[in-house]
């Protein structure tokens, strides 16, 4: 909310890539390609809430082109089945053929119904159950509606929780899907002792939580992503001593509150400034305390854990499993080495490799590589063969999916986004949508009428 520290970032004017080819295979949560056996998926459209600020629903169609499916679906009344493969992908199956339907954001797949147009030969994925009922009653064609609402972080057993930090790609070309790439060597190192650093760095890393997450924290509700954000905030605080600690602690161990067990240690070599996103990043290394590695380091590990440079952070319900999913994404984003022929990711077609305690979620391809910064600290050198480089950044809520610091009373006109003349008035039918004038209400009535009546 500090207007003196707002950065306006230019957005590319280039058109979005063709939805059909380039983006399809890369949106899979695993290492396979998408199935397209039924037909062509059309572009996904987003419907916003009454304030035109949050994404409320997504809609897309699959045009049926396969001859066998055309016959069974259009003439014989075959019913498609639908299931969720990943946070953003639903799979339609009809007459032995399958189609992967890709959305741009995570969706709750368990809350779905299908709108089937047997005469027009398409299947439509949409959001509102109420609209679905009106379509069935008013259409001569046999129709239904798919309900796939936007997924909130970790609130449902499917959607975002299936894989919140996907690693995508084909073959050895892997990428973190929703965490941007970093070239750590290109980023300037931040000196936490510089004047006025604490005044803005503490506020910056403390602004990760959405309004929902802040409410859950006050009510002591469990949410794994909220816990992860709190832990990342604690890591920055410990590594920089920005809250008045005696000294920076650059070795961070995660201790599972439920089992009182620690199986992950981070070495933070530098705090860098992320020029692309105007944020901070912990440049460091992750050490998994697995059954294979522990015998090799046990003789000197005790001195590290009990040393003055080490801070232990407790992690809570579901958080350790979330970290096992997040660590591979933080590693892939700064990778300078190549995945080899014996990569465990490629062999198992699975990232992360596991969510279990005392088991490494990472492949072994990056272990012991790019460790120059680690070797600069005498007490850390002996761990070099067992660590993997990692870039840890704050995880901010997405403003068009969750409310962030927004005044609930600061409504705007749904058409012109004005504040009102002299004030906004709510629609008399649903009392949800607000307009500044009758002119704007009349302009919007064609779009709003089906929702209002429903």
Automatic annotation (TrEMBL):
Keywords: Metal-binding, Zinc, Zinc-finger
Residue intervals of the MYND-type domain: 413-452
PROSITE patterns named in the record: ZF_MYND_2
InterPro entries (alphabetical): Znf_MYND (IPR002893)
A molecular function (GO) term: zinc ion binding
Protein name: MYND-type domain-containing protein
Annotated organism of origin: Trametes cubensis
């Amino acid at each position: 909310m500090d207007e003196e520290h707002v950065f306006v970032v230019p957005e590319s004017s280039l058109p979005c890539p063709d939805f059909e080819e380039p983006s399809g295979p890369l949106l899979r949560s695993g290492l396979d390609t998408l199935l397209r056996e039924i037909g062509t998926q059309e572009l996904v459209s987003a419907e916003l809430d009454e304030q035109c600020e949050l994404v409320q629903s997504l809609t897309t169609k699959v045009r049926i082109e396969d001859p066998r499916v055309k016959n069974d679906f259009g003439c014989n009344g075959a019913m498609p089945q639908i299931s969720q493969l990943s946070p953003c992908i639903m799979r339609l199956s009809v007459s032995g053929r399958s189609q992967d339907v890709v959305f741009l954001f995570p969706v709750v797949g368990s809350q779905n119904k299908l709108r089937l147009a047997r005469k027009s030969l398409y299947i439509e994925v949409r959001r509102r159950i109420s609209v679905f009922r009106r379509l069935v009653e008013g259409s001569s064609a046999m129709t239904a509606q798919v309900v796939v609402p936007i997924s909130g972080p970790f609130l449902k057993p499917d959607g975002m929780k299936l894989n919140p930090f996907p690693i995508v790609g084909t073959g050895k070309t892997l990428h973190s899907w929703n965490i941007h790439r970093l070239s750590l060597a290109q980023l300037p190192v931040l000196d936490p002792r510089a004047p006025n650093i604490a005044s803005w760095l503490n506020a910056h890393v403390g602004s990760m939580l959405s309004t929902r997450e802040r409410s859950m924290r006050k009510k002591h509700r469990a949410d794994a992503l909220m816990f992860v954000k709190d832990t990342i905030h604690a890591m920055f605080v410990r590594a920089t001593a920005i809250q008045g600690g005696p000294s920076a602690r650059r070795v961070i161990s995660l201790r599972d509150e439920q089992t009182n067990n620690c199986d992950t240690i981070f070495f933070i070599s530098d705090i860098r400034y992320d020029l692309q996103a105007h944020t901070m990043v912990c440049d460091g290394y992750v050490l998994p305390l697995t059954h294979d590695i522990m015998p090799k380091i046990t003789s000197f590990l005790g001195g590290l854990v009990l040393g003055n440079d080490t801070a232990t952070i407790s992690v809570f319900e579901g958080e350790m499993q979330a970290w096992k999913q997040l660590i591979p994404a933080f590693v892939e984003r700064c990778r300078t080495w190549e995945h080899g022929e014996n990569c465990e990711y490629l062999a198992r077609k699975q990232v992360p490799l596991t969510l279990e305690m005392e088991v490494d979620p990472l492949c072994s391809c990056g272990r012991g590589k790019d460790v120059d910064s680690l070797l600069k600290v005498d007490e850390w050198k002996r761990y070099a063969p067992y660590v993997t480089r990692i870039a840890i950044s704050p995880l901010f809520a997405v403003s068009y999916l969750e409310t962030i610091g927004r005044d609930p009373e600061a409504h705007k006109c749904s058409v012109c986004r004005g504040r009102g003349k002299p004030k906004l008035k709510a629609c008399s039918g649903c009392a949800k949508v607000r307009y500044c004038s009758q002119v704007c209400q009349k302009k919007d009535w064609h779009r709003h009428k089906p929702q209002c009546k429903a």
